[in-house]
Every structure is written in C-alpha cells, then in structure tokens.
Write a structure and sequence with these properties.
Length: about 425
C-alpha cells in the first residue's frame, strides 16, 4: 500500500474515531479500504477487554465472505472452565506468555501447531495468519482493558508480502486507538447505567454534573425492602449473604426496569426507584405493573431457591407520589445524582408501615387518588395512620385480596396493568 493511501486511511480512522463510528463499522471500513488498495485481507478479528459486570470483553469480526458469525460479540470470563482452556491454547495467550508483540504463521503448518482455531482457518482456505498484541501503558489501561488483540489473514497462496506486513504494522495501531476510544465511551455509559441508574446516567453523561443543579419534578416513588433479611443474614453463612441479596435485588430491579421505571439507589436490601412522565396516571399504573412483575419474579425465584434448600423471602413495597428535587447533591468531590424531599422520606415510612399492617404493598392516598377509575377498583383502604416522623396522618391502600384470590379479578387486573 502506497504511503499516500496509508495516510488517507489513517485520516479516515482518526475522523471516524472522533465522530464515534461503532467498532464493527470501523473494522469493516478499514478492511474494505485495505482491499481496495490491493491488500488482500480475508478475515480480521479485533478483541479488547472491558469493564462490565457480566462480560470480560468484546470482539469485532470481518470476513471477505458471507458468514453466520456475528460481526460484534461479547464474551464472559476466561478465568476457568472450557473458556480458560480455549484461551490458554490461543495465539494471543502464547504471545503474552512469551512477550511477543507480533506473530506470523503459515497456515500450512496448522496441523503441527497446538493453537485453537488455527486449523479451522486453514480448512476455510486462509493461507497466512498475522497476530498483534498492542499493550497499553500503565496510564492508558483501565482495569483489565490493558491491551488490544488482533489477527489478520489472507487467502493468497504466497501469503502477506513484506510491504503488506509493513502497512498493517503502521495502520493497525491507529485502528486500535479508534476502537479503544469507542470502548472507553461504552465503558462510561455502562458504569453510569449500572452504578447511577438509567435516567441519572443519561443526565450525568449529558453534562449535568454541577453541584446543586437540580430540578423539581413530580414522580411516583417506589421504596422496597426485604422481609426478614436481618434474621436470614444471621442464619446463613457469610458467603451466602451476597448471593441472597443479589437474587432478590435482581427480581426487584428487573421488574422496575421492565415496567419503565428508573432505579435511583440501592440502600442495603432496600431499593428506591421512580416512575415519571407527562401522564402521572400512567406512571402510577407502571408502578403497579412493576409490583405485579416483582411478585411473579419472586415466585419463580423462591421456587428455585427452595428446591436448592436455600432461604426465601419477599419484600415490602411502598408507593407514593409527590414533588421531589432531582439532581446533583453532595460535596465538591463526592456527588450523588438522586431525589430528595419530603416525598422521599414519606415513601420509606410507608414501606416500613407495611410490616405493622402485614401487607406487602401499601400506597399513599396521593397515589390512590391519582389513579384512573379502573385502577382505583383494585385498591382498598387499610385505614388511617400516623407515619413515624411525618406530621400528618394519612390513609393507606393495598391491593384488594380478590386480586390474588379470584381468577376473574386477577385476569381483569392483569389486563388493566397491560393496558
């Protein structure tokens, strides 16, 4: 590839990296431009580790022929099991172990090499295999994301020429820099969503990071905490506590997200969430839908845990509606993007009152009154209560027992929630 062509491709990679072209599109565009300049690539794979609670890293694939392989994929931990065995047989692992930055393999020698996937590539007609490991410096690494792996093949019988190898040595680091940049944006979004919540993450990454910048919004608030969690935690082994909490947190958070809510904070075994929108009656119904989905999730979870001989529980849920301050609150070097205000205090008190009246769901009068007529039919009053720390007594409501006891009412309620 001529110098002018290489410079043009470097400029393209830089421009597309700055504009945020997805990684798989970066790789596809790179390979197609290489081929247009006479560099006969047949397949390319780029792999980079990441920071994600589930996935260890991501890979991006391009091929010169149609394939049922995905051009972008995520992979789990390679620390154990079959994944670890496959990783330890890979060319990349061999390169890391021996300190190599580059490795060139004639695929005619594949039968004599104990590397995973090399034989498959030879069988598919690839002739030459070039692998790179580009390591990041200490200041450029982010957790396990400390290098970029890539491999390149050609079907040409004579393999890569020396000029083609030099071109790839010049160009692949620029591609790697663009992919690393895209991955860092993905990591920021993932960490924001996981640790701040969906809505708060969008606000923070959108630039609302100044201390004290808040807005007044009307919201349906959800507060839940587990039944008997303290006693259960004291009765099980220390190594069982976190899996126990994680199981039930997953049941709560999945239900809230599936109903369109936003989880704001995890407080021990408690969950604070909100439902918003221009139509507050619809937001109230979404909160009820989340509560219903949670009960379904818990029923399935408890069946699995009981079958394994592990303790089971459920949760108390309080629902309330009111005005809150939503935004950045805290010190100059430690901020939290959350909601504050009397409504937040009240919803936690309502959830606590559930224990006293032995109801798994309690909703405030403000929540009840704002439902449409159809929704109010499914709630019944539990009486008027003075909440701890709250200056006024108020009526509280729970689901009509017929919702669980009568199949026709259950079906009607589910249709209402789905509406």
């Amino acid at each position: 590839m001529q110098l002018t062509s290489r410079l043009a491709l470097m400029n393209w990679l830089t421009g597309q990296g700055l504009t945020g072209l997805p990684e798989n599109e970066l790789l596809r565009g790179f390979c197609e431009r290489c081929r247009a300049e006479g560099l006969q690539l047949s397949r390319a794979l780029v792999v980079i580790d990441t920071l994600h609670p589930i996935y260890e890293g991501r890979g991006f694939l391009w091929s010169d022929r149609p394939s049922n392989e995905s051009d972008a994929f995520e992979y789990g931990s390679t620390a154990e099991g079959d994944a670890n065995k496959k990783w330890r047989r890979s060319v990349f692992f061999h390169m890391l172990e021996h300190g190599h930055d580059e490795m060139l393999i004639d695929l005619a020698d594949a039968p004599s090499l104990d590397f995973s996937q090399i034989g498959e590539l030879a069988e598919k007609g690839h002739k030459h295999y070039l692998a790179f490991v580009h390591r990041f410096g200490e200041n450029g690494a982010l957790g396990l994301m400390d290098c970029l792996y890539s491999c390149w093949t050609t079907r040409r019988d004579s393999g890569f020429s020396e000029a083609e190898l030099e071109s790839l040595r010049d160009l692949v680091p620029v591609l790697g820099l663009a992919i690393k940049s895209a991955q860092q944006v993905d990591i920021a979004r993932t960490l924001g969503r996981v640790y701040l919540g969906r809505g708060a993450s969008e606000q923070v990454l959108g630039g609302r990071i100044s201390r004290g910048v808040t807005e007044r919004i009307n919201a349906v608030l959800w507060y839940s905490d587990l039944r008997g969690s303290t006693g259960i935690s004291e009765s099980i082994g220390p190594d069982e506590i976190i899996p126990f909490l994680n199981d039930y947190a997953q049941a709560v958070i999945d239900a809230i997200h599936d109903a369109g809510g936003d989880v704001l904070k995890l407080i021990g075994d408690g969950v604070l969430a909100m439902f918003t929108g221009e139509d507050m009656a619809a937001a109230r119904r979404a909160a009820l839908r989340a509560e219903h989905l949670f009960r379904q999730n818990v029923a399935a979870l408890n069946a699995r845990r009981a079958a394994d001989g592990r303790p089971t529980t459920s949760a108390y849920i309080g629902l309330h509606v009111g005005e809150v301050f939503y935004g950045n609150i805290g010190s100059e070097d430690r901020l939290d993007f959350t909601v504050v205000g009397p409504t937040v205090n009240e919803v936690s008190r309502i959830a606590s009152m559930s224990r006293s009246v032995d109801r798994e769901l309690l909703a405030s009068a403000e929540f009840y009154k704002g439902l449409d007529a159809a929704g109010r039919r499914y709630l019944v009053s539990t009486g008027r209560y003075a909440l701890r720390g709250i200056g006024r007594a108020q009526d509280l409501y729970t689901l009509d027992p017929d919702v669980d006891a009568s199949e026709p009412v259950t079906g009607s309620y589910e249709r209402y929630l789905a509406g």
